[in-house]
Amino acid sequence: MLANLAKYREAWARLMLTPAPDARVVVWKRAQLKAGHHKHTDLKPKRIEHAIVDNVEFLRSHPTRRGGHYSPKRDQEQ
Q1: Contact 16, 51 (CB under 8 A)
Q2: Is 58's pLDDT higher than 80?
Q3: pTM (2 decimals)?
Q4: Best exposed site among 15, 19, 32, 48 by fewest CB in 10 Å?
C-alpha cells in the first residue's frame, strides 16, 4: 500500500512539471499548489511556480493559441 502511495506522489510530481496543454491545466496546477499537495513530495513550491510560469508563457506565445485553431492549409496560404 505504501508503495502505491509513493508511486502516486511521484506521478503527481511529474504531472506538475509536465507542460500544460491548455489553460485549464494551469488552473488545476495552481489549485493543487494552493491546496499544499506538494508537501507530500520533494518538490519545492518555487519549482512548481516556475513550471506554471513557463506553462503560461508557452501558451501565450504558442502559434496555435493566437488566432484560433491551427490549420496547416491556412498556414500554407500565407
Answers
A1: yes
A2: yes
A3: 0.75
A4: 19
